[in-house]
Amino acid sequence: xxxxxxxxxxxxxxxxxxxxxxxxxxxxxxxxxxxxxxxxxxxxxxxxxxxxxxxxxxxxxxxxxxxxxxxxxxxxxxxxxxxxxxxxxxxxxxxxxxxxxxxxxxxxxxxxxxxxxxxxxxxxxxxxxxxxxxxxxxxxxxxxxxxxxxxxxxxxxxxxxxxxxxxxxxxxxxxxxx
Length: 178
Hints:
Layout: E1 24-37, E2 45-54, E3 63-72, H1 76-97, E4 113-119, E5 127-134, H2 165-168
Antiparallel strand pairs: 1-2, 1-4, 2-3, 4-5
């Protein structure tokens, strides 16, 4: 039970129907990032959840979430493929914001990008971030540099869960592109 004494619903307009964001390309920036567990009590590893905020147009202010399953700890081909996809998704974000070797996801925040968004191929009732590119298709002006990270996470192992996912990118579990 939660004590809500002092709250008066008459002081606030009730929420209306929340409409699905249409498939398309949006100018957006990351406004929050956090690491969360995958599955029941994090039993399947760790993921990075990025919160994107649309910054222009009629949907300005709406939020989109992107999960990057960087620490998926399922062994075998499925786990390897999932971690490879996650590495490539994070690489796209890093390239789009111009921060190729960030130490923390906060370095990716508040840099405008172009985000392609729409239904998942296998589960069209759910939407996903399909691609992230520098705004206007050009090189990102976010600065930062260093070697890019890509490909699988090495040996099918996820980076240690007790480390920041992106700190691992600087040498602790995300191999550098050959």
